[in-house]
Amino acid sequence: MVKRFRVLILVGLATLAADQVTKYLAVAHLTEALDGRTGLARLEGFVSEQNLDNDPPVEGAFRRSTRPYRFIEDYWHFRYVENPGAAWGMFANLPEGVRRPFFHGVSLIALGFILYMYLKLTPEQVRSRWALALVTGGALGNFVDRLLRGYVIDFIDWHWRNQPGMRWPTFNVADAAICVGVGLLLLDSFQTRQPVESVTPGGQVV
Questions:
Q1: Which of 34, 47, 85, 143: CA 20 to 30 A from 21?
Q2: Residue 175 bears catalytic tag
C-alpha cells in the first residue's frame, strides 16, 4: 500500500516544501515584513503575520511596502501579491466569513477527488501518477496559505514590455505545479493505448 502511494507522497511533499520555501523567500526579500527579525522570529512572522510589536495584522491589509525585483527587465519580475480569491482573483470580493469556508471546502473536495483519481490509476500510468502528485502538492501549498492567512501569496510576475493585456496573472510555485500536472494529465489522455489482447478457449487471439 505504501509503495502504491510513494510517488504521491514524495512528489506531493517536495512540491509543498518548494512552494512554502519560495513564499518565505518572497516575503523575506520582497517585503519589509521580516525586517529586524532573527532566527525563529522570522519564521513566526512568515507563518503568523505578527508584527514586531506582536499586534495582530489588520484584516485584509497587505503586508509592509514591497520591494519588487526585476529578474529580466520588461519580461520577468518578482513582485509580492496577496490573492484572497481563486485564480485570476475570482471570488476575492466575497465576505470574509463566506470566502474562507468556501475555499477551504473547495480545497478539501478537490484533494479528495485527486485521491480518488489516483486510486483508479493502473501501474502503467506512471505519467498520470506524477501529474496527480504535482497537482496534490500545489493544491496543498495554496491550501496551507488560506488556512494560515486567508489568502494565497503570489510573487512571479510575467509580462511583455508592460503592454496592456500582455501580463500573465501573478502566480507561485504551487500554481506552476498544478499547471504542469494538468498538462501531463492532458498529454496522457491523448496518448494512444493499445487494446488488451485476449485469447478465446479455442486459442484464437481477439
A1: 85
A2: yes
